[in-house]
Structure formats: C-alpha cells, structure tokens
Amino acid sequence: MKTIEEAAREYAKKTDKANAEWVAEDFTEGVKYAQRWIRVEDELPELGETVLVKEGDKVAIAEFTLTKHREPHQYFLVKSTVTMGISHWRPIELK
User: Fold this and answer.
1) Average pLDDT of the chain to the nearest whole number
2) Whole-model pTM?
C-alpha cells in the first residue's frame, strides 16, 4: 500500500506538474481532514450511522445508537458488540 506522501506525489504529477508541490500539499491536507477524530462535544453523527468510535486508546466500529447520561457530554454506545463511553468518532465512509 502506498503511503499518503507517495499517493500525493503521484496525484500531483498526474494533475498539475507545474504546481506539483502545492497540489501534493493540498492532497495531504485533505487526507488529514478525512482522518480526523471529531469530539462528541463538537458534533455527533447521524443515529444509525456506522462509525469508528474512540475512548482513550480503545477504538471500535459501531452503529451509532446512543443514550445521554447525567454528566454533560457523556455518551455511551448502546447498540454494538462493544459497550464503552465514547469521546470521539469519525466516519468510515466519507460522503
């Protein structure tokens, strides 16, 4: 599998040789955006959406069905093979 940097250079050479460095940088920034973890305090996914969820160093794939507990911003995954408090999430498939 290619690294992000290799894929960025390859894409830049195909699309705009004159500005390859900038194109590769933009490509890399797009990848970083797509791979970012979103804090549950900032945004929640759609209910029923399958996402990656994270608490500390634990990561799971789950259908996002949740319940809010008494503590502000404390959400717990309730429909999954893994039950855990979650702090971050990110989509598996980008729209």
Assistant:
1) 78
2) 0.63
